[in-house]
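Re: weekly structure request thread

Next one in the queue (419 aa):
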Amino acid sequence: MKRKLPLILIILVFLTRAVAVIATGEPKIEKDALHYHDLATNLAAGNGFAFSSEMQFPWLQTGEPRPTARRPPLFPVILGGLYALGLGPSAMLWLNLLLATATACILLRMTRVMELGEAAGLWVLVLYLAYPPFTIYTTKLLTEMMFMALFTGTALLLMEGLRRRHLRCFALAGLILGLATLARPTTFLLPLALVPFLVWPRVRMRRGWAVLALAFLATMSPWVVRNARTFHRFEMTFTSRGYNLFMGTYPPTRARSNLPPEQQPPDLIASLVGNNEFEVNRLYTQAAIDNVREDPAGVAKLVAAKAVLVWFQTRADTMFLPTPRSFLLNGPLLALAAVGFVLLFRRGSPLAWIPLLCVAYMVALHLASVATIRYNLPSVPFLLPAASVALAAGTARLRGSDRGGGRTPRQEDGVDDGD
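Done, posted below.
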């Protein structure tokens, strides 16, 4: 029975998400989902990767669809394929369900590759099953579940590559990382973040990093070529980058991710009028640089507030005080993960740096840009293996004390003390 528990938990992940998808019916199409729906509708209609007139900047509205690079392509392209088959937005929720279940399998495999023990493998599935946002975002017409599956898949392949010393694992990691970046550009700089770790003396996988980087660039290249041919511009990610940087460095936002035009600097808004999206991107980027130069103290306060906002919702009257509900959701998980990472590094776990790097990378990117719990949600799966180690060690210690001794927590987790 014990060997069947992981399968039972994975089935429960599937069933709970399936119930949520059935209960949702048709997803709400608003805000970001409205952009994805519009792009997918134009793709299915043969208009290419284009925004309808009402989605364009007011000064560019002509009544006709216009090609764009304001959103990354993968999610709208897949959604457009579903529309072309005669399916509706709800079909994407079923794909979200499959991706959510795949993420559970990836996390289980991650605990095994890291040699965390059977108990940690069970705990990681329990935590994934019980964390409410993972179910909630399965029912949204958003990129979260797709990006999460691809990002965790990249980390798992990187672990497999380091453990097996196989270059094909690094090639697959680069491919999946490229797809993740085409779903959400957050991971664009991750190959660079990996450099000091893959040439670290204990790892020495320079060839592995080179293969990963080449596979990543090859996966990104169709999007780059499309943008060059369509706009005669070089663009590897998307043209909303400058806006996000500006919102993340403009103190009057009070760390909010969006402001209506009337609350943005009038001279900036005036300078945008009449420009295409690439020039708008450049102007917002320059405005972000000006924010840092002109008000470094205000920007530093924003960064401090975003360090809270990546994990917690805050009360309306403050940027720093979490709401009780969000604190209860993420506070214990962060504490367990911190304890788990300490245990892993004390044990000398050679792969523990990978999930920690993924969390640190995601948080750092959002500290520089816009930050919300939703945007940082894909970092949460990387906390779960460490949190599962803490829970497994704690339960083993309790069982040991109940027996008046017995095996140590390290031995209970399947880690030999080397005696």
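The longest helix spans residues 206-231. The chain has a mean pLDDT of 93.
Next request, please.
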